[in-house]
Every structure is written in C-alpha cells, then in structure tokens.
Design brief:
Helices cover 81% and strands 0% of the residues. By secondary structure, it is mainly α.
Length: 385
C-alpha cells in the first residue's frame, strides 16, 4: 500500500534522528522497499499498450470481414479469442510476468464484451440494452476475483458505473413528466460491495477509492434523477453524516491508548468522500437550483463553516488530503459566490473584504492549532526530564 510506504519512509528519518535506527539500517530498509516496489515500469506500460493496440487491430480486421463469415466461424472466432486471451494470461502468470498477464486479462474482458454485442447482433436478440453491460460487468468482476486481477476489477467498476448510469438515465427518459419520481437504482449497492470486497481481498487500496468515487457519483446522480425539492438536501445530509462519523472515529482512534493506522486511513477516506458528497449537494443548492437571496446566504455560510471545520479537523488529525480538499472547496465556493453575487447581493469591494476576513480567520485558526500541537509535543518531550 503506497500510503504505508510513504509513512514508513517519513518515519525512518525521524527514527534515525532519534537514534532508534542506524544510518546503515535505514539504507537497507529503503533499498528493500525499492526492490519490493510493485509499480508499473516503462516496459510494462509499453507492453500493455502494445497488447491493447494489437487487440484493437485484430478486432478491427474481424469487424471489417464480419458480414462475409458464416455464423459458426464467427462464434468460433469469439470463443477462440476469449480462450486465447486467458490462456496467454495463464502462461504469463507462470513466467512471472504479472503485469503483462493482467493486460491479457483485460483483452479477454474486451473480447467478452464484444462477443456479447456481436452474438446479440447475429441472432437479432432484442432486450433492455443496459442488461448487456451488466453481463459484461459481472464477467469482468468474476475474472478480477478469480484471477486476482486489479485491472479487471477496475474495468468492472467502470462497467458497473456505466450500467447504473444507463439504467438511471433510461428511467428518467421514460418517466419524463415532472411529477413522476424516478426509482433509485439500488442494485448498484450490492455490486459496489462485491467490488470493494474484491479489492480488499487483493489488498489494492486505490481500488477501494474507485468504489468510493463510484458510490459518490451514484449518489449525486440519483439526487438529480429523483424529483422533489429536498433531493439535494438529503444527499447533503448523507454526506454530512459520513463526514461526522469519520471525524468521530478518527478522534476516538487518536485518543485511544493505541492508535490504529488502518482505522486512521479508512477514516481519512470516508472523510474525503463524505465531504465531496456534501459539498456537491450544497454547491448544487446554491448555484444550480436558484435559491432566494436569504437562502443563498444561509447555504453559503453553512458551506464555508463546513469547509473550515474540515480544514481544522484535517490539520488536527493529520489528514492532508482533507486539508487540501477543504482549501480547494473553499476556493471554488468563494469564486462561485463572486460570480453569482457581484453586482447584486454584494459589491466587489465588500465581497473581497468579507472573503479576506474569512481567509484571515482561517489562517489564525490554523496558527492556533499548530501552536497548540507544539505545546503538547513540548510537554510530552519534557515530561520525564
């Protein structure tokens, strides 16, 4: 996990300065981490791109001559391509060329999806189009779990997102009357749970982030699909609940006798996605739904307070990602308010005055927090002196 590696490298310097680790020991540890690094190298990237290009070349050639082939030959090509891709993956795994093997698995997934579409076209199978994407996504999920392939699981995540979005848009199209409520697409939730379980089984934590992004996009999309004036409010409340829960767990973990790094990592992840979800809904309420002036002021104050709280908590808990999300959200909020209110609600000079005071208050808050943390560190270091 890259987060754990980064923290270990940061801790090594501190341990060496404290005399707990020798310089030679630190060098050996860094070398071992470098040798065990599993990141993709340039040959791997080029090899994967080459395999993908060859796959598209083969599919383009077959597609150009598809209509002239008998049906049995077409079916034989589809199944031969599918079997060949996974046989190549098995051979590459046996040779220890895992990255190239994952590329072959992706090629097999692409052939599987193309086979679904082509077989439906050959036999004039008509039905609900998103169902084909669902079958494709389930095949990618099965390949990712059975073959322990993170790229396959990532492809499955994208396919499940496409399937859910297509289902939601399809319902929105068929139920286009303003009084009709579009059913929330709940089936994505068990699919997301299966994806998260697969990534966790493989211990590939960036994939869990992909699932979090998928759920955040799904939640925001559902709020746009369903009717009612409170749809974005509900999404904002859900995001705020996740954010508050993450802060509570992180605080409890920090004050415990033994802090758990895994709990801290998951709290940081949930805090980030909770903030993104809540802020997306609040921003929509302010700048898309056209609120009244009083409502806009109230929503803007709540949003800025939320961002300040996130920045404060991020600094206190050591969640750098949350701090940067708070800064980015704060900048977007201020700029959006300026574009919406200049010349109407606030004059330019008054607007920048208020924004400047908020920024100064933020700087003072951060300074007080760092000073408080410095006092605590000083007390701990000199407690036994």
């Amino acid at each position: 996990m890259w987060i754990a590696r980064r923290r270990l490298v940061e801790d090594l310097a501190r341990w060496r300065s404290a005399g707990w680790v020798t310089a030679e020991g630190e060098a050996h540890i860094r070398q071992d981490l470098l040798e065990r690094r599993s990141g993709a190298s340039l040959p791997t990237v080029l090899g994967i791109l080459g395999v993908v290009l060859l796959g598209f070349a083969a599919m383009s050639f077959v597609a150009a001559n598809w209509q002239d082939m008998p049906r049995l030959v077409r079916l034989a090509i589809i199944f031969a391509g599918l079997a060949g891709a996974y046989a190549a993956a098995a051979g590459l795994f046996a040779r220890g060329m895992e990255n190239f093997a994952h590329a072959a698995i992706l090629l097999g997934i692409a052939v599987f999806g193309a086979g679904i579409m082509l077989i439906a076209q050959m036999y004039h199978i008509e039905g609900h189009p998103p169902d084909a994407i669902l079958v494709w996504a389930m095949g990618a999920l099965g390949a990712g779990v059975l073959l322990r392939s993170n790229p396959a699981l990532a492809a499955a995540t994208a396919l499940f997102g496409l399937w859910s979005g297509w289902e939601t848009v399809a319902f929105s199209y068929y139920l286009s009357a303003p009084d009709n409520l579009v059913p929330i697409h709940w089936p994505l939730l068990p699919a997301a749970a299966a994806l998260a379980a697969g990534f966790t089984l493989n211990r590939w934590w960036p994939g869990v982030h992909l699932v979090g992004a998928l759920l955040s996009a799904w939640l925001v999309l559902q709020s746009h699909a369903v009717g009612g004036d409170t749809r974005h409010v509900i999404v904002a409340l859900i995001g705020l609940a996740v954010t508050a829960g993450a802060i509570f767990v992180a605080r409890a973990n920090k004050t415990a006798a033994k802090t758990e790094a895994v709990v801290a990592d998951w709290s940081a992840v949930l805090l980030g996605y909770g903030l993104i979800t809540a802020y997306a809904a609040l921003w929509t309420l302010q700048f898309i739904e056209r609120p009244q002036t009083a409502q806009l002021i109230l929503l803007a104050v709540l949003t800025i307070v939320l961002l300040l709280v996130i920045i404060f908590q991020g600094l206190s808990l050591g969640f750098r990602g949350a701090v940067w999300l708070g800064y980015v959200g704060f900048s977007i909020e201020i700029f959006s308010l300026y574009v919406k209110t200049v010349g109407s609600l606030l004059g330019s000079s008054l607007f920048f005055l208020v924004a400047g005071l908020i920024v100064i208050a933020l700087a003072a808050l951060a300074w007080r927090l760092h000073r408080a943390e410095g006092d605590v560190t000083w007390d701990e270091e000199h407690r036994h002196v």
